[in-house]
Every structure is written in C-alpha cells, then in structure tokens.
Description:
The complex is a heterodimer. Chain A is mainly beta. Chain A has strands at residues 5-7, 10-13, 19-24, 31-38, 42-50, 53-56, 65-71, 74-79, 88-95, 102-103, 107-111. Chain A is built from no helices and 11 strands. In chain A, the strands form 2 sheets. In chain A, strands 2, 4, 5, 6, 9, 10 and 11 form a 7-stranded mixed beta sheet that branches. In chain A, β7 and β8 form a beta hairpin. The radius of gyration of chain A is 13 Å and the shape is globular. The model of chain A has no long low-confidence stretch (mean pLDDT 94). Chain B is mainly β. Helix content of chain B is 0%, strand content 47%. Chain B contains no helices and 9 strands. In chain B, β3 (31-38) and β4 form a beta hairpin. Chains A and B meet through β4, β5, β9 and β10 of A and β4 of B.
Amino acid sequence: DAGVIQSPRHEVTEMGQEVTLRCKPISGHNSLFWYRQTMMRGLELLIYFNNNVPIDDSGMPEDRFSAKMPNASFSTLKIQPSEPRDSAVYFCASSPGLYIQYFGAGTRLSVL
Amino acid sequence: DAKTTQPPSMDCAEGRAANLPCNHSTISGNEYVYWYRQIHSQGPQYIIHGLKNNETNEMASLIITEDRKSSTLILPHATLRDTAVYYCIVRVLQAGTALIFGKGTTLSVSS
Lengths: 112, 111
C-alpha cells in the first residue's frame, strides 16, 4: 500500500483565496484525522471522521475551515477565505481501528 | 486523556542506547501509553504502545513502571536517523479516537 497520500505537498496562495487540501487514506481504514502543525501550537487535531461521519470538529479554528469525507477513500479540508495565520503544515492520518494512526507526508501551506 | 510530561531535549551518542522518559502520574487504569516520533518535515510515525507490561518490537522497547505513573522508551542502538521529536501519549483504547500531542522530546543523536 502507498500509505496515506496528501496533495498538494506545497501550496502557496494569497490571502483571501480558497485553499483545498486533499487526502486519500489507506484502503480499509475506517478512521480519518486532520491535524495542523505550527511552531507556536505544535500538532493539534482539527477534525476526525469514523466511517466517513465527522465525529469531533471542535478543533476546527473557525467557520472558514470545513472538512468533508464523501467516501471512504477521499477527504478534503477547505479554507475559505485563507489568512496568513493559516500558514502551517497540515497532516492527514488514517487508522484501521484501535491502535495505530498512519500519517501522510503533510501539505505545507503558505498564505501570503 | 491523562497528561504527560517529557524533557524538552536529550542527546545521545550514535550506537548507544537512548532512554526517553515520560511521566504520566494521572493515568487511568484503562489508558494505554503510546509513543510516536516525528522526523524533521515528515508526518509522525508510530513506534510502540503498552498497558502495563513491558513491550518490545523491531524499533524499540517500552518499560512501564509497576504503578504505571511513568514509562521509558528505549532505542537500544541509536543511529543518526533516530534524531527526531518523540511524543509520549496516553489515551484509552477506543476505536477512532484522536491523538493529543504534547511538545515531546527532541532527541539529537550525534556521531
């Protein structure tokens, strides 16, 4: 298996633009997680899904952020409109169940 | 989930054992100890987990004290590629629950 695949790897955009990050989890995994990492705040959970259903979105910073999981093999994290403080590395992870989460390589977002 | 305390940084010579401590004095009976690491610019990677018995896999060993209030991750023969941030996480064993990351320990392995 290719692991968790995230795209794009790098994204540079201007303030006010819409940004869409994509994630393909490992086949057969039924949980998917979105994390954000910054120097100031470290790794923090944004939202997670079980069986394509959002379970906890309390980490989503504000209404500008939204996430969807239309099927078991795809998820998106959208920021609209983007702001410079959204600049971070965004990680997607998937899990087959109880024990281990497998992380993607991340998307490095820079909002100018 | 119980809170963990780790030293911010540690150094280790290549080829020597790296012993990374973690304090989790408020751990509950049904909470497991997990270790992940993050090599620079990569996503976190699972290392090992345990409840109360010592555990060993191809990557590391996990030693949990009898009262479960602390644990030690042991990398038996550290290499330069083991330089990373190591996170100790305590959580219940429940499907689809998220990981709560602290600041972790930055391990620097030098030759």
